[in-house]
Amino acid sequence: MNKLKYTFGIIVCAIIASCSVVKDGSNTKNTNKDERPSLDELCAKYSSDKCHQGHNFIHFYDRLLSPQRDSVKRFFEIGILNGASHLMWRDFFPQAEIFGIDLKDYSIQAEKDGINTFVADQSNRADLQRFINKYGGNFDVILDDGGHAMDHQQVSFGFLFQFLKPGGYYIIEDVHTSLPTYYPDPDFKVNETGSNTTLLMIEWYIRSSKMVSEYLTKEEMAYLEKNIESVELTYRTTRLHSTMCIIQKKFEE
Ligand SMILES: C[S@@+](CC[C@H](N)C(=O)[O-])C[C@H]1O[C@@H](n2cnc3c(N)ncnc32)[C@H](O)[C@@H]1O
Fold this sequence. Notes:
alpha/beta, Rossmann fold, 2 domains, seven-stranded mixed sheet, two-stranded antiparallel sheet, 9 helices, globular, binds S-adenosylmethionine
């Protein structure tokens, strides 16, 4: 009788095991593994400057966003250019609608590819409001890869944070434009003393829990102070100093 039970047990185990593996010739693959293209592979496919050979932000995105691959529904990135990153996000998040704004009109190309685009200056609240009026808010992720000037980064952050869903992420790329080595570049609009930089705003918030920016309204600063869950600054010792900031919104307002 015991021998019969033992044999039965072995057969059951073998059936369970055969359900969780697929045999293909010499290899045995675990069906639990995600066989879809990784973020790395999609980054390389579309040649975004977020890849390893560029700013390598993809390393942080993989860690942060891969666990949410099947739950992200609304992804908004500022700055379209040739659409490389928007296509990457579209292919990465199967459930998500992808949105983009840019100073230039990329609608013909992007909308053919299933991306919702809108012409807007990210430093202009009226433009941003028009975008929200058309497409709504409640974004899982808002990513700023636009002009990288101090007013661009801070006005967008101050205005758009309210349109993140609870627990969502606001990401500012290229915060390294706040570093002294970039001060001479007029495009980034750093003042003589560097007192208006995005990096200083973030660092001061981390030190004091106070959001201080000459570009934000009092209401925006108060909203941020009340609704930020966490702030993560990443710095790379690369030629580009590629620095980004990931700000998570509280789950409950
Ligand atoms: C770095 S590119 C975006 C690259 C794209 N996100 C990618 O990874 O493939 C920056 C884009 O931001 C746009 N841009 C610059 N200033 C802007 C502003 N004030 N408002 C909106 N877009 C802006 C530029 O026209 C350009 O297309």
